[in-house]
Design brief:
By secondary structure, this protein is mainly α. It has 13 helices and no strands. The protein is flat and about 90 Å long. It starts with a helix and ends in a 6-residue tail after the last helix. Its main location: membrane.
Length: 305
Amino acid sequence: MVAAVMSATESRGLRRRNWLTNVNAWLLLLPAIVLLATFTHYPILATLYHSFFSLGRSGPAAFVGLDNYSYMLDDDVFWQVLRNNVIFALATVPTSIALALLMAVWVDKKIAGRSFLRLAFFTPTVLPMIAVANIWLFFYTPGYGLLDQFLKMIGLSGHNWLGDPATVMTALSVMVVWKEAGFFMIFYLAALQTIPPDLKEAAAVEGAGRWYFFRRITLPLLMPTTLFVSINALINSFKLVDQLVIMTKGGPNNASSLLLYYIYEVAFTFWDTTYAATLTVTLITILAAVALTKFIYLDRRIHYQ
């Protein structure tokens, strides 16, 4: 009888401790949950809700269903900026990743000035977006920019790099790669330092060359980092706004306008907030679909240590 009473008491005490542990855990998570719900989940749902309404300039907003999406499909500017963004992503994402990997492999070796090289490669990452735009304006400004000055030194005429539709996207791509490659290098450098040195020693004993070791061992072990970096690089390629405001404002003739800048322009220049909400939902859907597809495709080819 006494044993039964003690067992019941211990059971109630265990349940109480579990309950207190759960309450304590949820209280610790509560600030993060509130911030996430307030600044992420609620804005997404509110944007989706507003995308189904008219602007309501002369009266209350009215439910219009998919009319905003239908208008978007007929919007030539939307298709132009979407095409620009796809080209921009194809130009910057693979280049940034390849350059980041190359720099990481280089500064991972025991070479003279390794700390200085790491600092030099990473420095563009910490610069504000506005500062980066003004730095590259100093290169691209026609007439007295550094690029035009160099061309004049070798007897060539200058060029309006940001005013020519044929060169403006290339100019912006170079700037973005310069800024982001150092950031991605840090992740690759950290991943390289987790590779056991025993693997390299075993490969050397077997007579494997450096390129063979890099291709068959290093790259597969870096695939989790590559997945993370590629998704972040893709997202970054679709959220460029600051540099466009300073450098081109989407010109010439929308040749450098990207999707997020077009959303900014629609919302804060034309004050068409419901159409901007429609474009935002489309942007989120595109990014989510591409990221999910990339994750599913690459995850099958990833070796986790």
